[in-house]
Amino acid sequence: MLSPPTSINFTNFIQLRKLFIGGLNMDTNKEQLREYFTQFGPVVDTVVMKDNATQRSRGFGFVTFAWIASAVMVIRNGPH
Fold first, then answer.
1. Which residues span the membrane (predicted)?
2. What is the count of structural domains for the chain?
3. 51-64 per-position pLDDT tens digit
4. Which terminus of the chain, N or C, has fewer Cβ atoms within 10 Å?
5. Alpha carbons 75 and 80: distance in angstroms, whole number
6. Contact in structure between 40 and 65 (CB atoms under 8 Å)
7. Taking each helix axis from N to C terminus, what angle separates 10-17 and 68-76, rounded to the nearest 10 degrees?
8. Is 17 a member of any domain?
């Protein structure tokens, strides 16, 4: 017997749309990150993590999509 589907609360919904992006070129900025990942669907937010002292990129960031399906498509079409 199948169990009923579990509900997804708002926090889980956001987490499923957000991807960690590692191995970024140190010159990559949030606009370039958005431009690249828009090919997979609407991007809500991009963040490139920076060192607090130097403001240089730490080589990773995050992309949040409008839809979970877009994040899934990125994973299925990797590596990037």
1. 59-75
2. 1
3. 999 999 999 999 99
4. N
5. 9
6. yes
7. 30
8. yes
